[in-house]
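Why this split exists: single-chain examples teach little about how molecules sit against one another. For that reason, every record in the complexes split bundles all components of an assembly together and asks for one structure covering all of them. Below is a record exactly as it appears in the raw files.
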Amino acid sequence: MMTGINAIAHVALKVKDLDRSMDFYVNKLGFKEMMRLPKPDGSPGVWLVYLRITDTQYLELFPDGQGDRAPGRDATAINHICLGVSDIDVTLAHLEKVGIPLTQGKKMQMDKNWQAWIEDPDGNRLELMQMADDSLQFAAIRAMGGKV
Amino acid sequence: MGIFRGLGHLAFKVNDLEKSVAFYNAIGFPEVLRLQKPDGKTWIVYHQIGDDLFLELFPGGDGNPVPGPDVTGVNHLSLTVADIDKAEKDLAAIGIPLMHPRNNARGIDGNRGMWIADPDGHRIEIMEMAPDCIQYRAVANHHAGGKPHVLTLG
């Protein structure tokens, strides 16, 4: 590609309560903490924590968010984050076990993928998606010569 | 392994759909799919990042710029490049300015980076990840069964 931009390396969240977010993303969703960095100016507290989604995709958590809730679904902003899953039933069973309620239950959307929705402690919307081999997205990628 | 395969997509609520479509096309993420409502209006435009990673653009933003950097919520996203010098030239050639002049020194994480903003003001960090950057070393440590790294700067 012309600009050489080729992947999402991380998504960064500004969080209200770091411990609460760590409990959600690490203890409940199972992302592992990779490392944490202290504040560059030497003041007390954490600057950011890196969580591993995959070996090359990370979630950054920055504490001290202003405001109790992430912007609502109609605000001009990043609207939601979608996490891919291999088997949505396995994922939903796990979420039930750890006590994360679904904000929308399992449903096959018009793109032919299974999806369900949860919210993180700050109200960031997370979509869980099991991509189907014959999904509209993969069909479009194949039509462009992509390999999926 | 965890219960997730990885990121599937990121979705943006945008103020001016065609402006955002043009921006993401220009930086190398082509539109691959557009879903329309029965009335012919656009519901979602998909841009390809990787073969199984997408950006979704939803029209109908509230008209405001995106929330500032201190607000609770998604703060920024980061895109990787193989060669940041080339990426800076390529972005200049298509008229996309950097948010701040680039400091060519490596950051404390060992990587070189720069920032651009999309038409609604979404902050995008562009990173050339160094093979020995602290993130990759932390991942290697994770696979070796080590405890998370805590680094002191300075």
